[in-house]
């Protein structure tokens, strides 16, 4: 496999993958992040260039754990390399992550409910995130959540005291990795507002949104 480091090649790869959506979703978001400052310190590999048949995105220096076929490739297994111990699989024809962001909500103007405002999560909220994530509850998941919290966009709705009531986190692959509303705050439209804001901000940065 060849690691692409040339900015021109990475920009060209982004254009090729964009034309191959949604099949390319498991790696497209990672390539977008790499081309926009690479906050997750990721790298992308191809079997050959420029006529590649497979493309892989992973944290820099890590051993490959999945390969996504490129344009014209034959779909195969794609294990989630973000947190290998969690073992989630990515399916190329649907949005990877806990909660999809619907492209249809982009044109709507949702506002938080009375007493709720748009804020942001801080490092002090890592334990709350770890306790409420389906794959959380251990030291490794806590480190992972702290990393994506510090590096990637997130949306948080807060009550009048500044306590988080709903949030959406994104990851190295530009996908929604942890979306949650506190049980006592559900059925008030909070997640719809958070997802709308996340989709609008992602769209503004050139990231696609899919249901």
UniProtKB/TrEMBL annotation:
Which part of the chain is the Glycine N-acyltransferase N-terminal domain? 1-64, 114-153
A single GO cellular-component term from the record reads: mitochondrion
The answer to whether keyword Transferase applies is yes
Enzyme Commission numbers on file: 2.3.1.-
Q: Which SUPFAM superfamilies match?
A: Acyl-CoA N-acyltransferases (Nat) (SSF55729)
Question: What InterPro entries does the record tag this protein with?
Answer: Acyl_CoA_acyltransferase (IPR016181), Glycine_N-acyltransferase (IPR010313), Glycine_N-acyltransferase_N (IPR015938)
Which Gene3D superfamilies would you find in this protein's record? 3.40.630.30
Top-level division of the source organism's lineage: Eukaryota
* Any Pfam family: Gly_acyl_tr_N
Alphabetically list the UniProt keywords: Acyltransferase, Transferase
Q: Extract one GO molecular function annotation from the record.
A: glycine N-acyltransferase activity
What are the coiled-coil residue ranges?
none
Query: Which PANTHER family does the record cross-reference, listed alphabetically?
Result: GLYCINE N-ACYLTRANSFERASE-LIKE PROTEIN, L-COA N-ACYLTRANSFERASE-RELATED
What the record says about family reads: Belongs to the glycine N-acyltransferase family.
List the protein's name. Answer: Glycine N-acyltransferase-like protein
Give the organism the record lists.
Hylia prasina
Please state the gene responsible for encoding this protein. Glyatl3
């Amino acid at each position: 496999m060849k690691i692409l480091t040339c900015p021109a090649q990475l920009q060209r790869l982004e254009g090729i993958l964009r034309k191959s959506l949604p099949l390319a979703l498991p790696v497209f978001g990672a390539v977008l992040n790499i081309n926009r400052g690479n906050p997750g310190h990721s790298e992308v590999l191809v079997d050959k260039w420029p006529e590649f048949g497979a493309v892989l995105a992973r944290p820099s220096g890590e051993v490959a754990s999945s390969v996504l076929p490129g344009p014209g490739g034959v779909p195969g297994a794609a294990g989630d390399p973000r947190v290998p111990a969690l073992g989630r699989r990515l399916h190329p024809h649907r949005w990877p992550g806990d909660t999809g962001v619907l492209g249809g909500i982009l044109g709507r103007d949702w506002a938080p409910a009375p007493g709720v405002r748009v804020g942001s999560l801080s490092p002090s909220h890592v334990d709350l995130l770890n306790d409420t994530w389906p794959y959380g509850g251990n030291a490794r998941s806590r480190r992972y959540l702290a990393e994506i919290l510090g590096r990637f966009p997130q949306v948080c709705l807060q009550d009048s005291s500044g306590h988080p009531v709903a949030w959406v986190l994104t990851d190295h692959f530009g996908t929604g990795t942890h979306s949650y509303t506190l049980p006592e705050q559900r059925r008030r439209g909070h997640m719809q507002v958070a997802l709308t804001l996340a989709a609008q901000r992602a769209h503004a940065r050139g990231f696609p949104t899919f249901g």
